[in-house]
Amino acid sequence: MSEVAAAGALVWGTVSLRSYVVVFLAAFLVLAARDLGVRRAAACLVWGWAVAFAAEYASTRVGLPFGLYHYTGATVGRELYLSNVPLFDPLSFPFLAYASWCLVRWASGRTEGVAAAGLSGILMMLLDVVIDPLAVRGERWFLGQIFFYPEGGVYFGVPLSNFFGWAIVGWVIVAGYVRVAAGSPPPRGSVRLGAGLYYGVFLFSWILTVWIGEPLLAAAGFLIHGALFLVFWKGFARRAMALVDAGSDWRSPSGPREPEGATSTS
User: Fold this and answer.
1) I want to staple 121 with a disulfide (CB 3.0 to 4.6 A). Which of 3, 167, 211, 225 is the partner?
2) Mean pLDDT, the chain, as a whole number?
3) What domain count does the chain have?
4) Predicted model pTM
C-alpha cells in the first residue's frame, strides 16, 4: 500500500470509528459559525482541541488533571494518533464546551464573565457523569476498549479526580471562547440550538447506557440531568448570575446588568 493510500485509510478509519463524534462536531461547527462567525468558530475548535489534548497528554503521564489513565492502543493503525492520544478524542471537548456554554447563555442571558465560564465547566462535567462511565465500558458497545483507569474509581469505575478535571478544562476552554467571542454580533438563534446539542449528547450517551444494561448508571444520569433541566427551565441560572453581579467583584467587560423587569429610578 502506498503512503498516500495508507494515510487515506487512517483518515477513513478515524472518521468511521468515531462517526458519532463527527455528527456532533459538524453540528457544533454549523452552530458556532452562525453564532460567532466562521473564523471565530474555527478558532474555538482549535483552542478547545489544544486544551483538551494537553490535558489528556498530561493525564496519561502524570495523572493531571483527569487522574491517571492509559490508552490501550487497540486502534493503532486503524485511526490517527498524536503521540499516545487518539486524534479524535480531544475533538469531543470543543463541542461539549460549546454546548455547555450555550445552555448557560440560554438560561441566564449572559455570554461573558468568570461566572458564565465557570458554570459552563460544571455543566460539561455533568455530561461526563454519563459519558466517562459509558466509555470505560466501551468493549460493550462500538467504542471498544480504548482506555482504562489502572486504579479504577468510586463512581462506576471512574475516579472523582476525572470530574474535577473536566470542570477545570471546561472552564479554561469556555474562557477562551468568551475571549474569542468578545464583540461578536448577537447570536441568530444558535444559542437555543446549542443548548439542544447539550441534551442531544446527553440522550445519545444515556440511551447507550440503557442499551448496554447499566440501569443504576442510567438512573443516576437521568436524575442528575432531569434535576438540571428543571433548574434551568425555571430560570435559576439567570437569578444566580444577577446575584453574582450584585455581590462579587467578578465583572464582565460590560459591567453589571439590572435584573429583568427592574425599573430605573433615575
Assistant:
1) 167
2) 87
3) 1
4) 0.86
